[in-house]
Every structure is written in structure tokens, then in C-alpha cells.
């Protein structure tokens, strides 16, 4: 073939290939996307938070859509209010009021839906989740606390100054095996320890009053006493009937090391939840430079939005590996437990090395 025939052949072949690759569009806008105004997350969230703003003769009110957009931008980035003041052309004080109002609205409107108080059936489902994913029976959730960085509150002296040498408020949270928060307590002084904050929380009061609707203790295979349902925590928490912690010490018997490993597998769900929270809502990557009441509203809002996003969009695995901007709480070494509480932990430790309770790889991990 001469050059002209080669060129014609190449052109024809290229045209056929392009026509084969061309896909005939069935829709200009896909039906799923066309329902964005009805079912899109932004609009479903916005409709429940909407508050009618009234225009005045002096100026037009800022629309609710923009108020929500500004707030989400503030929570999801490392921008401070001064940055958003220039970006959105909204006054600094007005912007502060908008963000705090929207955060309060999100908590008031959505907390009952996104973070409801579990009933007895809910607790059983949570326990089944930990049994399935972490191989830990009768677990109601993993509890832990983190320091949230803030700027020094005026006139606070050392109340908010923690052992890591920065100012903070404390977020105490309980997470289930789906990386969702089932309970939060926000605003304790940075100087306090995990156990002190936990015992000052409403969760501890409800545990002591038996008003949490926790299922009754029941039997587990290979254990001859009924085992109560319990939360799992680290060494900072005191051992009690409904709270389990690891055995203390470095040179432990294999049975105790196995228990500590199995408990850590369940406890990591709250650590991963904190990682997802801090990497999704990047306001935690810097000190929150507002007053304490405003900072508490921000943290509560982010926790509710964490559950909202988690239910709809899942999470990125990489976010579970690191926690940015949050620090562990201090330990209280003067924690004691009576023998009746210790026997439940000892019974579970024996169960984890029995044929019914052991997992094949646990001896390689201790």
C-alpha cells in the first residue's frame, strides 16, 4: 500500500474505534441526581435546620443556606473566623453568632435522631456488633476521652491547663462497633483525669441508678456465673460492674495478657472513631479560638455530624489510623475495685483461653 492508502486505512480504523467507545447517554441528568433537592444530604440537613430570617429596611438577612455553608466550611477546614470573614464578606461578630447558632440548632434538632439514648434492644444489638467484629461478649461500647485544644479562657488560671502543657476541654465519648458515638460528655476541665470526668458524667450517674436500660446479666459458654454487660476502657478508668479495664503491670501471666489483647481489640473502636472525627472535621487540627461555651457547642455539633455522615457516606480507612489534634487524658493510679468486680474480669479472662472463647491468632499477638 502507498502512503495515501495507509492514511485512509488508519483514519477509517480510528473512526471505527471512536464510534465503538462512544456511549449513548440515556439521560441528560441521571434520575438519582435529579432528586438532589429532595434527597441530597445538604438539602435534607438544611430543611430541618431552617429558621426563617426576616429582611429589614436597612439590609437583607443572610439566607439559611449560606449560614449552613459557612458553618460547615468553618468546621471542616482549618480556617478561623477571620479567614471566613474575608471569604464570605460577613462581619466577624455576625459570623461568630451565625456559626454558634447553627451549631446549637444542629445539636438541638439532630441529636435525638443521630445520637439517641439506646434502649435494651439497642444495647443488645451493640453487644452483638462487638461480639461479631471484636470477639468480645457483652460489650456495650468503648469509652475514652480526648483533650480538645482551645485558647486560654480569660480568668481561668490553670483549670483548663492539662498535663500535656496546653489548654483544653475534654470530650468523653462512648462508641459502638460501627464507629458511631452513642454518648458524649463535653466541657470538663483539661486538668481532670479520665476517671474523674467519667464519674462526674451523666452516664456514670445513670449506671449507678440503673436507669440505662442495660440488659440483665446472663451466662456465657464455659462461665458458670452470669456476666454483666459492660463498657470497655483503658487503664485510666476504674474497674466496676459495668466498666472493664485491662490488667495493670508489665510482667503478666499469659491469661491476663490475652485478656488485655482481647479488650484492646474492642477498645480500638473508640480510638478509630476519634480518628475519623478529627480527620473529617479539621477544626480539631488547631486550637479552637472561641470562648468555652462556643467551643462546647462546636464539639457537640461535630459529634452529631460525625454520626450523620457515618450513616450515609461511611468513612475512609486511613482516617482511622491517626488522630490529629487530640491527646489522651491523664491516668489516675489510685483506683481500686472489690473482689466481686474482679471475678467478672477473671471469668472473662478464663473464657478467652477456653475452647469456646479463644481465637486462633491471639497467642501470636500477646
Automatic annotation (TrEMBL):
Protein origin, superkingdom: Eukaryota
Protein name listed in UniProt: DDE Tnp4 domain-containing protein
Domain DDE Tnp4: from-to ranges: 143-307
Keywords carried by this UniProt record: Hydrolase, Metal-binding, Nuclease, Nucleus
Major localisation: nucleus
UniProt cofactor(s): a divalent metal cation
One family name in Pfam for this protein: DDE_Tnp_4
Family: Belongs to the HARBI1 family.
GO molecular function ontology, one term from the record: metal ion binding
Organism: Aphis glycines (Soybean aphid)
Amino acid at each position: 500500500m502507498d502512503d495515501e492508502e495507509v492514511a485512509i486505512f488508519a483514519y477509517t480504523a480510528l473512526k471505527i474505534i471512536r464510534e465503538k467507545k462512544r456511549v449513548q447517554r440515556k439521560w441528560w441528568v441521571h434520575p438519582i441526581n435529579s432528586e438532589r433537592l429532595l434527597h441530597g444530604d445538604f438539602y435534607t440537613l438544611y430543611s430541618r435546620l431552617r429558621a426563617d430570617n426576616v429582611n429589614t429596611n436597612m439590609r437583607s438577612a443572610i439566607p439559611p443556606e449560606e449560614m449552613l455553608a459557612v458553618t460547615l466550611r468553618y468546621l471542616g477546614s482549618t480556617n478561623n473566623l477571620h479567614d471566613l470573614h474575608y471569604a464570605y464578606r460577613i462581619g466577624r461578630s455576625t459570623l461568630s453568632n451565625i456559626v454558634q447558632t447553627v451549631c446549637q440548632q444542629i445539636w438541638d434538632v439532630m441529636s435525638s435522631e443521630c445520637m439517641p439514648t439506646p434502649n435494651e434492644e439497642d444495647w443488645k444489638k451493640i453487644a452483638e456488633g462487638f461480639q461479631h467484629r471484636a470477639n468480645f461478649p457483652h460489650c456495650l461500647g468503648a469509652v475514652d476521652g480526648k483533650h480538645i485544644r482551645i485558647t486560654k479562657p480569660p480568668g481561668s488560671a490553670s483549670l483548663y491547663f492539662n498535663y500535656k502543657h496546653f489548654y483544653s476541654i475534654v470530650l468523653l465519648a462512648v462508641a459502638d462497633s460501627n464507629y458511631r458515638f452513642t454518648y458524649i460528655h463535653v466541657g470538663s476541665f483539661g486538668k481532670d483525669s479520665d476517671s474523674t470526668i467519667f464519674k462526674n458524667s451523666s452516664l456514670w450517674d445513670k449506671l449507678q441508678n440503673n436507669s440505662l436500660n442495660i440488659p440483665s446479666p446472663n451466662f456465657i459458654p464455659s462461665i458458670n456465673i452470669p456476666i454483666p454487660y459492660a463498657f470497655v476502657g483503658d487503664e485510666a478508668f476504674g474497674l466496676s460492674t459495668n466498666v472493664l479495664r485491662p490488667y495493670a503491670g508489665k510482667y503478666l501471666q499469659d491469661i491476663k495478657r490475652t485478656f488485655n489483647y482481647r479488650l484492646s481489640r474492642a477498645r480500638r473502636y473508640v480510638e478509630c472513631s476519634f480518628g475519623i472525627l478529627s480527620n473529617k472535621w479539621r477544626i480539631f487540627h488547631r486550637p479552637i479560638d472561641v470562648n468555652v461555651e462556643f467551643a462546647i457547642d462546636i464539639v457537640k455539633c461535630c459529634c452529631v455530624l460525625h454520626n450523620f455522615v457515618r450513616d450515609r457516606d461511611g468513612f475512609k480507612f486511613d482516617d482511622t489510623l491517626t488522630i490529629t489534634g487530640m491527646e489522651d487524658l491523664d491516668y489516675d493510679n489510685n483506683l481500686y475495685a472489690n473482689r466481686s468486680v474482679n471475678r467478672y474480669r477473671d471469668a472473662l479472662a478464663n473464657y478467652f483461653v477456653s475452647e469456646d472463647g479463644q481465637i486462633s491468632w491471639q497467642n501470636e499477638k500477646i
